[in-house]
Amino acid sequence: MNAFSLEGQVALVTGANTGIGQAIAVAMAQAGAEVIAAGRRDCDETLALMGAQGRGMRLDFSDPMAARDVFAAERIDILVNNAGIIRRDDAVDFSESDWDDVMDVNLKSLFFTCQAFARAALPRGRGKIVNIASLLSFQGGIRVPSYTASKHGVAGLTKLMANEWAAKGLNVNAIAPGYIETNNTEALRADPARSQAILERIPAGRWGRAEDIGQTAVFLSAPASDYINGTVLNVDGGWLAR
Ligand SMILES: NC(=O)c1ccc[n+]([C@@H]2O[C@H](COP(=O)([O-])OP(=O)(O)OC[C@H]3O[C@@H](n4cnc5c(N)ncnc54)[C@H](OP(=O)(O)O)[C@@H]3O)[C@@H](O)[C@H]2O)c1
């Protein structure tokens, strides 16, 4: 057996049309999984990159319960909760809608999607969940209060679910990506002073690529990581070590 292979596994990746989600879907397909690329719109580019290993599904987490029936309908072995949004404003001005929108997609949807997955996977006694956390699961950040609250929540819920389900065969872990070149960080990269300051603090000396997260997600979904439970794995070029 190749402990790093996903051969024979069915994986569902949320927010798979772009960025980190796309890279995770493609890396999992390359590792042998059959991948369901879920998005609030069609994931055409991701499907083209995955070829015969992939298929699409519409999941829009503006309804946090959107995935309630997905896992009862077919066997899905691996769930990657990647969909996420960010809103920026001074804490003193931050609006209720910017709070609720981010918490609903990043935290409430993630929990209830995990719950729906677990209800189907627990009777089988096996399954893997990979949640996408953030450096802001550990740090405070600036001008992103709902994002920081949601990602601290993702780290906490990852541990809670691991505590409840590890002995029942489900691995629940998270990845905390560092600064990755995607739409999510476009505003930071468009600001030359901010972009330079970030780069200077990264021991690896470069921004992260979505593929860096894709390969880690494969590892946390494969048999090689069967004894890893409740971990939030930093993939940040050393940022948090500094
Ligand atoms: N880039 C980084 O440096 C970084 C660092 C730490 C953590 N992260 C996390 O990594 C994850 C992926 O982000 P990214 O960097 O790849 O950014 P991105 O390119 O903006 O991707 C975000 C994904 O989430 C989807 N999404 C947003 N709202 C949704 C909804 N209501 N229902 C379903 N899907 C929805 C987006 O779909 P649309 O394209 O339709 O909007 C997109 O597929 C997020 O959880 C983010 O917080 C990113």
From TrEMBL:
Entries under InterPro entries matching the protein: 2-deoxy-D-gluc_3_DH, NAD(P)-bd_dom_sf, Sc_DH/Rdtase_CS, SDR_fam
Output the Pfam families linked to this UniProt entry. adh_short_C2
Q: Which GO terms describe its molecular function?
A: 2-deoxy-D-gluconate 3-dehydrogenase activity; NAD binding
Q: Which UniProt keywords apply?
A: Oxidoreductase
SUPFAM superfamilies, per this entry?
NAD(P)-binding Rossmann-fold domains
Note the superkingdom of the native organism: Bacteria
| Family, similarity comment | Belongs to the short-chain dehydrogenases/reductases (SDR) family.
The cross-references to NCBIfam families, in alphabetical order and at most eight, read:
kduD (TIGR01832)
Note the PANTHER family from the entry.
2-DEHYDRO-3-DEOXY-D-GLUCONATE 5-DEHYDROGENASE (PTHR42760:SF5), SHORT-CHAIN DEHYDROGENASES/REDUCTASES FAMILY MEMBER (PTHR42760)
The identity of this protein, by name, is 2-deoxy-D-gluconate 3-dehydrogenase
The record lists the lineage as: Bacteria, Pseudomonadati, Pseudomonadota, Alphaproteobacteria, Rhodobacterales
